[in-house]
Amino acid sequence: MSAKLVKELRERTGLGLLECKKALAEAGGDVDLAIEELRKSSGMKAAKKAGRTAADGVVTTRVAEDGSYAVIAEINSETDFVARDDNFLAFVDKVVSAAFASRQTDVAALMEGELEEARQALVQKIGENIGVRRIELVTADAGVVGSYIHGNSRIAVLVELKGGDQDLARDVAMHVAAVNPRVVSPADMPEEVIAKEKEIYTAQAAESGKPAEIIEKMIGGKVSKFLAENSLVEQAFVKDPEVKVGKLVAAAGAEVVSFVRFEVGEGIEVEKVDFAEEVAAQLKG
To answer: How far apart are the C-alpha atoms of 57 and 131, rounded to whole Å?
Structure first.
């Protein structure tokens, strides 16, 4: 079993070397499968997400003055240094302005012509690869869209409300940036996700030796807790933990319709190179 896989499993689970090696061997080298089996057998909580968010750049938003619609975009650079460069940020503004004006979310279509020429010129000037990764449009049919950008443009969120105002939408967006819920409400959680959690909780409960009816209640309770912890409207509001987000919004006569959360580099796996090893390999060659 490769040291790289063992290292990844240890980083994502916090478990010991031997336990990780054994789990990987039993899972045939599949890290995600190994995590599933470890959760079943050891009661371990959900592991960290795969891959490091190694790609750099910024995420940003543009919202209509009346809150009727907004766009959110991620533009990547190779390093944080470039992500703070004025030339790069000017390019980001061009891209977002074009997407906002045209309501275009197809990156390839948006980048045809002038914007692609600007990107190539920037790559030549800066010496790093620059890319527009994704753009989404959120339109409010019977309410408003609000936004929040956090951490030097590392996280950006759009929230659509039915009713309410942009200040409330921004507060909810701030919560989404901080807590990162999976869905708006428990009813929105995909069935396959719930089924997978039930499978894991069932395997955990089976080792308790308790009667079947007690086990069923235990599983039901854990599923309910999982749904509450991962659903926006059921979470305690970050600015006032005494109230849930759903009740906060309802008190203002509004309802959360949707949210979009972008974090720089999320889901992008970039191979880490050990500089010393790289130099040694070059010297050997």
So the answer is: 9
